[in-house]
Amino acid sequence: MKFLSLALLVLPAVLAQDIAPKTNNQPSNVTYEADFDKPNGIKGKFVFSQGKGGEGVHVKVDLSGFDSQGLVGPFKYHLHDAPVPTDGNCNGTLAHLDPYQRGQTPPCNKDKPETCEVGDLSGKHTPDGAFNTSEYANEYTDLYIDLRAGNRGFFGNRSITIHGKDGVRIACSNFTLKTTTGSPKDNTTKPGTPKGDDKDDSDSNSGKAGNGTDGDGNADDSAAGITRVGVAGLTFAVAAVVGLLL
């Protein structure tokens, strides 16, 4: 009986490792924008601001040009771990923002957004995890990204990347900080290196992108050296509990 009680105590803690917490107390004076005006025809912007009552981040998307020659959908977009390098190569943005090491497999379940990669915005907020239209406009609140530097869901010093068919990176942009009054918390944190009490080795997807694909498979996962902390922890816990019961 005591072994069963131990199992009930251990397993919920392990299963919770991949659950992203909701972000509260978002600042009202901070807005981040990512602009797109690319040679391949993609134009528009993303605007990130305080969610209602400071709960989460309100996201407004307005993009066009996906019917340009050579662009093939379906199209997805994600927050990526590193900013766009000076040469503009989108492969340099590395992997998705994934501070809880969830990984891309299985695909994001938009009905349980807390279990998705923090940076998988299209996975959490489009009907099929992607769109396949010449224009795309959307507004929503994401409860797991963060406008405050130093927190795991912070994205202001990173980038956003748009993908075409098979995960090919077709456009990317850095964020520009806009403030209305006062000054936001210092936003000079290096990608993958949170500050203060939130510092944790698991907050960094610091590997390099491989062939520039990270669709539904594991291409960017292996290239970025992402470890499955949650899965490994679950496997260890189950094995330990079974051993005790035997």
Automatic annotation (TrEMBL):
GO terms for molecular function: metal ion binding; superoxide dismutase activity. Its EC number is 1.15.1.1. Residues 1-16 form the signal peptide. It comes from the Eukaryota. Residues 179-222 are annotated as: Disordered. This is superoxide dismutase. Belongs to the Cu-Zn superoxide dismutase family. It catalyses: 2 superoxide + 2 H(+) = H2O2 + O2. It comes from Ascobolus immersus RN42. Its main location: other. It is found in: Cell envelope; Secreted. One of its GO terms (cellular component) is extracellular region. It is an enzyme of class 1 (oxidoreductase). Keywords: Antioxidant, Secreted, Signal.
